[in-house]
Amino acid sequence: MSAAVETGPHGTMTQVPRLAQLPLPAGGPAPYFPRMSRMPEVSIACPGWIDDVIDWDRTYADDETRMRVALTCARENVLRDTGGPFGAAIFDTGGSLVAVGVNLVVPLRNSSLHAEIVAFMMAQACVGSYTLQADGLPAHELFTSCEPCAMCLGAVQWSGVQRVVWSALREDADSINFDEGPVFAASYEYLRARGTAFEGGVLRGEGRAVLQLYDERGGTIYNA
Ligand SMILES: [Zn+2]
Questions:
Q1: Rounded to two decimals, what is the model's pTM?
Q2: Largest CA distance in the chain
């Protein structure tokens, strides 16, 4: 495919992965509003270096291999100064990489742009559906470099992912003063009862190292 590559605030932006190979929903893309309000149009894109460090075409067979994609996104986001120390990746259960996300809160001035939220947005754009559980789609899993915060855990329910795996634990984020918000044991119980599986601490040492790297480099702790 010949994806358009545009120049954005981070330089060259990533190509939209695999979009041409994925089916659009019946009726095509949602129609855009014929008239825009005075509110600004919000545009979200991943930085272009992602295409330099991620192999979109291979199969990711196991949890550690999949987690390393999320960890690579997190680590490179720190090293390249394009956002916070968090990365996420969404795979189908066959091991195909659907989309990735990195934390873009500070560069895009948007408190919602945690890596998991960005990954959900990108994956849903790639499959052409507001849910990754749409008819005809395989099951999807979220891999994230750190235990989800309250916002991202809430978004899990509506994203359509059926399994969530993380690397660093909440206490690792706390240790550099990131606040993960009101996440309770009952939050997990609620989601588990609705069919979502969770697993934490996969390659935890590598996830924790990314957080420490960000701290050592004096990265902004935007919610402290
Ligand atoms: Zn979050």
A1: 0.87
A2: 50
Please write the tens of the pLDDT for every residue from 174-190: 999 998 999 999 999 99
Count of domains observed in the chain:
1
CATH of the domain at 131: 3.40.140.10
Active site residue 189: no
Answer for the pair 134, 119: CB distance below 8 angstroms, yes or no: no
- Which of 6, 76, 116, 171 is catalytic? The answer is 116
Centre of ligand 1 from the C-alpha of residue 115, in Å: 7
Residue 24 in domain: no
Radius of gyration of the chain (CA): 17
From the CA of 31, how far away is ligand 1's center (Å)? 29
Count of Cβ atoms closer than 10 Å to residue 220 Cβ: 11
